[in-house]
Structure formats: C-alpha cells, structure tokens
Write a structure and sequence with these properties.
The protein has a 4-stranded antiparallel beta sheet. Strands 7-13-12-11 form a 4-stranded mixed beta sheet, with no helix packed on it. The chain folds into 2 domains: 1-31; 32-204, no CATH class. Strand 12 and strand 13 (232-242) form a beta hairpin. Helices cover 24% and strands 33% of the residues. By secondary structure, it is α+β, with helices and mostly antiparallel strands. The longest helix has 17 residues, at 12-28.
C-alpha cells in the first residue's frame, strides 16, 4: 500500500530514472556478462537449434506496431550469446523512444490494451523467449502478462509462452548454459515474424509441454521442458485473468 502511494505522487520520469539506476547498480555489482556481439556470420552457426514463426495480427495502431516489431527484431538479429553469457532484451534493443525511431503501437499495460511508444515489442520479446526456451537456454528473467486478452482465434502464441517487457522495469534475460556460443536470428516478412537459434555444433533436443486449466475466471498455465535424456523441469507456473469474452 505504501509503495503504491509513493508511486502515485512520484513523477513518472523520476520513477523511470530510479528504476534504471537500481537495475544498473545491481548489474554492475554482479558477475553477469551480457551478450553484445552481433557481427558473427550466419555460416559460422550452421546448426538450427530452434525456430518459431508467428503471425503479426492486425488491429488498432497496426502501422506503429509493425514498425516497432521491425526495429526491435533488427536490433536482436545476429546476437551471439557466448557460454555463460546472458541475452538481455533491453541491453540490445535500447530504450523505446521516438528519438530512437520507435512509434506508437498497441500495447498492454496493467492488463489493459492501449497505445504507447514501442507498443508491439512484447511480441518480439515473447518470440525470443519461446525460441530461447526451445533451444534449452536458461531463464534468468521473464514476466508473463497478468491477463489473457485474446480469444483462441486471435492468439499468435500459446498461452504461457508470452514474455512482457517494460523499460526499464521488466526485462527478458536468457543465459546460455552450453559450452558453445549460440546465435539468434530474426526475420520480419510482411505480416510474419520468425525467431531462430543456431549453433556451431548440434545441441540436445528439447521438448516443451504446456498444461492449462481454466477455473473461476482464471487460467492456470504450467510450462515444462523435457530434454532428450528424459529430464523434465518446470519452467513457469502462471495465472492469467481471463477476459469475459476471451
């Protein structure tokens, strides 16, 4: 309650500056190493580890959404994550602002659909999350949406595989646990978005299992990952508020 009261009387710009400073301070005090290299040739990573294709749905503010998805995907395309390094969405995409070329697109904030600078980037973070998950990368930070705003006909990714990002509060971070580097690839083609992960050598196969239960206006979704060796780990256990017409 006290935190909400303080936020209500604190200017938005100051809250953002404080959040950015706090995250920078935590990152600077840790031993984490973040991926920054994007100059590797695709031919150096010939083995496809995972690939995800999503349709870019229409709707309000579509032009801005398409522009933001294209810009975000371009800044992530070719990112190389060395062994032990972390892919940070915001470290590579940067702050979404008009000065950086981002437009007003459809966004979901607090479970409510609206429009803001950078709207649509959550589809880029979500597909990066799913591609990384299917490639066996370790999840360091990921945030689900609080509400399921889509009907099954409107859904562009399975519920439970979404990853919302809010600069600088919520990031997507994936760690490479392998002894070889991996490379992310992104392609935007008309109304489709593709994300892939490649490696210089073959990596163990990974299967994703999703279990969903609807009860009392809530949707419980558990995501598990199973390796080729038969080991299973629970990746997430999320609860979404279902919209009345969803």
């Amino acid at each position: 309650m006290l935190r909400k009261m303080v936020r209500a009387v604190t200017p938005g710009g100051l809250r953002v500056a404080v959040a950015q400073a706090r995250r920078s301070w935590r990152d600077g005090g840790s031993s984490a190493s973040f991926a920054a290299r994007r100059d590797a040739a695709p031919g150096d990573f010939p083995h496809l580890v995972s690939e995800v294709l999503q349709e870019i749905k229409g709707g309000a503010l579509l032009e801005g959404k398409l522009a933001n998805i294209g810009l975000g995907a371009a800044r992530l395309d070719g990112a190389v994550v060395a062994p032990g390094e972390i892919l940070s969405f915001w470290a590579l995409v940067g702050r979404p602002s008009a000065a950086a070329g981002f437009a007003v697109g459809r966004s979901i904030r607090g479970g409510v659909a609206g429009g803001e600078i950078g709207g649509g980037l959550c589809q880029v973070s979500g597909i990066a999350y799913e591609a990384g998950l299917r490639a066996g990368l370790r999840v360091i930070e990921r945030h689900p949406h609080s509400r399921d705003l889509y009907t099954e006909a409107e859904r562009f990714t399975p519920l439970g595989l979404d990853a919302t990002v809010v600069w600088p509060y919520r990031d997507l971070r994936l760690l490479n646990p392998y002894e070889v580097p991996v490379r992310f690839g992104f392609v935007v083609n008309e109304r489709a978005l593709t994300a892939s992960v490649h490696a210089a050598f073959p990596l163990p196969p990974v299967a994703i299992e999703i279990e969903r239960t609807d009860q009392g206006g809530l949707r419980h979704v558990q995501v598990r990952r199973r390796t080729g060796e038969g080991a299973t780990e629970t990746i997430s256990d999320d609860v979404y508020e279902a919209m009345p017409d969803a």
